[in-house]
């Protein structure tokens, strides 16, 4: 008798509370065959179809295991589980007469596929849950199959189906609503597909399908919701090809995010379209900017550039941007004048700023023309004086500078004269202006021209500590010790008071 | 990696020099950012290994700087990258490699160049090469469509993306280095960079855990928070099981605080950036001050190449002085000098062999400290030449007057004089914008006067730049009769008269008086909370909000007594070094209770920020 059979007997006797159980068990144990006996019982259970027989064999194995020290439990557990699965599919309502060996050969995945093909979804899901398969491998896959089948049920309304699917699937990981939606679309149920896509959290998946289904507007909404600008661009360019220009623009109008992105695209790719977009929006400010831009980038001849700027002026006025309009008119005027200067003087003037133009004229001794421009463009006095003395100094036209300084009271004072002369290393001229600066600037002026003694006197006269320290900081021990002494004395005196 | 740009300048096409870049500084802070860099390197290696065989990389030039912070050339070499080129029109240079990989940002104009490269490939003479394309930071359907239209899409075997969103710059600093983020967001209503920011935050959360609390101020902040919440929903079940490192995320729009970048930064690092410009942690300096002093003959051949230094917290001395007010740097440097020379003096006292051995073992560290000190002394001298100039002083005085609310409503004499003398335009724009911001806009007469002066002096072509500044709100017309800035200044204590530059007790030391509004917002959020400043928050642009992200029960943080909270402050549209210094100051405050990690779309200063908003109109050539 095989040890397994004997073990089965032993267990039966044990249940009857008969001492024979002990006898049989000893018999197996004496031959050292107990683990073999347990193994046989487990294996035998696999070949049995009747749950009752399976149970008694497994009970015998379990009984035998109690008397073993180290019997690995896996085979027992695995067989119990597998048998439970097999019993389920052997049920007459299912009727898959797979043997244990066949089942092992096929693997659980294939079995699940067969169940899915037979649309035995609930059973398949129970099995997955029972075997604790990962959701990706198991439940999600089956639910997805179920959903794909469900969308083909024509007798139910779109709402019902979508609702039913979401009810079951929820947020199960690994479910791709977009795949299910794609299936629905393939079955001609576009509305259902759209409803299903609502449940798809990944916009990257929603948008291409929506485009495929020609639901571009919805795709645009979804793309914008996602924040993924690349997706928005994709839809926008799709729309551009799909719709006629008018409708396309109207669509963009409703979606500011898409509109701004498309503007960016046009700025780099299709300048003319950009203009049309601004035109449609009556965005005169941007239209003005657009013309300014093109006057620089696409027009070569002066006439062309002036014409573009003239367009800009018109738009700026429409935009009620008085300042920009006036500034642009001035620029047109300047361009024309510069062209004339260029012709008359045979020197490049065009495209210099007003400042540089006037500066250049003074540098060349064309004081009359400079004066003319200065008046014509109403350059503030102060700036003109700065500009003129700078240019005269560069020209080293000291005589003209002196004449200019005496033409009227300088709106910028005389310190800048001192500075500019010193910058061009003309101490002699600088001294002339140092004498003319206001009392507050006297110390600074004297320091600039290197007259520390006078600077010290002025500072002491002002009783200004900061000024005195300033002079002191310029003194070098070797050469200016007398000056330093003078200041220190004055400082000491003021302290006493 | 910067060597890529240099070699191109020299007219040579191939790069051979190794990238530098150690990562020790990234693990110095409360949050170990090495993990982020590692993740970046892993992703890069995986992609390179997909293209089996020898490779040449064709670089979108803008990417080389940021990439250098992630991987050195040696890493690429290990993965059979043999040559590197700069992406440019025409035919690709010859290279005997199996794979050509384009590393590019997803931009249409770059796609056109790539198409030209691929189409002009000589199929007859040169051996067949495989093409691949790596989009940084994201693949783009638009770009692929363009390649398709050009008929080359099929030429690419691998088309992938490399999500280089947030690049670790230092132990507490991340930047996207997205140059035009501010312009795109606030001028062009193009929120692409915000999408990348949200993606970057998702990557960060995948590595450092879900951030339970999100606060924000501004429209862009709101948009980013919305996208984050949405993206979280896109991965249900992917429950993040990492213990959260950050307690709070604070999203701030740059346009909530337009003032801070306009003011001149007065910290050491801030001034280096203001004057020389720091790019991807590197600065280029005039070489004269860095000559070796000892050699008498060395003086003949003056170096013409600028001195290039990397600036980060890996350098001990720099970490100590970078965030100090520049006026406090000198004393630290001279103290260090004394310590170092004392340490070198030690050798005379070393009598026993043991003592000598001890001394010698410290030598490398001492020498490094000495050369670091020498470098920073030179830099400090360079900066001092500028900060002690009269013009710097005058400019600063005017800035400070504006910020403290003096005479902001009329035309400023100094500004006018600067225009008349044609000082650099950006300087003028910074001053005028600063005045406009400090006055909640300028009166029509004042605004028009400035604009006219600028156009007449610098040229009409700047009219579009002025328009851009107006669109961005930097320059505006005062619409209401009320000037809101004083209210904001007083409530938020933005102007501090008693500033201590040497031993600061308030963040206002970074601008010698002005406390950056953005950082005040962060400070007030931590304590006592924004509820205390509801009124001011209503005046500042955009909504303010709070969101909570649910954590599984096991991951909820139980704070130890005295353990600081960690807040990630994300500046959308850029952040200055002075603001970073102010946040670091708050982190170090003894009873502060909060430590900060800073993220931004771009590290900015007033100059490069204004520059990014300028419209370049050039007259046609004759």
UniProtKB/TrEMBL annotation, chain A:
Record keywords, A-Z: Coiled coil
Subcellular location, record wording: Lysosome membrane
Lineage top rank: taxon: Eukaryota
Topology within the bilayer: Peripheral membrane protein
Stretches assigned to the Vps16 N-terminal domain: 1-78
Coiled-coil regions listed: 7-34
One BP term from GO: vacuole fusion, non-autophagic
Domain Vps16 C-terminal: 175-493
Keyword Coiled coil assigned: yes
Major subcellular site: membrane
A molecular function GO annotation: actin binding
One Gene Ontology term, aspect cellular component: lysosomal membrane
Similarity annotation: Belongs to the VPS16 family.
Quaternary structure and interacting proteins, as annotated: Core component of at least two putative endosomal tethering complexes, the homotypic fusion and vacuole protein sorting (HOPS) complex and the class C core vacuole/endosome tethering (CORVET) complex. Their common core is composed of the class C Vps proteins VPS11, VPS16, VPS18 and VPS33A, which in HOPS further associates with VPS39 and VPS41 and in CORVET with VPS8 and TGFBRAP1. Interacts with RAB5C. Interacts with STX17, MON1B. Associates with adapter protein complex 3 (AP-3) and clathrin:AP-3 complexes.
PANTHER family found in the cross-reference section: VACUOLAR PROTEIN SORTING VPS16, VACUOLAR PROTEIN SORTING-ASSOCIATED PROTEIN 16 HOMOLOG
Protein name per UniProt: Vacuolar protein sorting-associated protein 16 homolog
Species per Swiss-Prot/TrEMBL record: Chelydra serpentina
TrEMBL record, chain B:
Membrane disposition: Peripheral membrane protein
SUPFAM superfamilies (UniProt xref): Sec1/munc18-like (SM) proteins (SSF56815)
Subcellular location, principal: cytoplasm
Record's subcellular location: Cytoplasmic vesicle, Autophagosome; Cytoplasmic vesicle, Clathrin-coated vesicle; Early endosome; Late endosome membrane
UniProt record, GO biological process: protein transport; vesicle-mediated transport
Signal peptide positions on this chain: none
Statement: the UniProt record of this protein carries the keyword Nucleus: no
A GO CC term attached to the entry: late endosome membrane
Alphabetic keyword roster: Cytoplasmic vesicle, Endosome, Lysosome, Membrane, Protein transport, Transport
Tagged with keyword Membrane: yes
Free-text function comment from the UniProt entry: Plays a role in vesicle-mediated protein trafficking to lysosomal compartments including the endocytic membrane transport and autophagic pathways. Believed to act as a core component of the putative HOPS and CORVET endosomal tethering complexes which are proposed to be involved in the Rab5-to-Rab7 endosome conversion probably implicating MON1A/B, and via binding SNAREs and SNARE complexes to mediate tethering and docking events during SNARE-mediated membrane fusion.
Family indicated by similarity: Belongs to the STXBP/unc-18/SEC1 family.
Record protein name field: Vacuolar protein sorting-associated protein 33A
Organism: Chelydra serpentina (Snapping turtle)
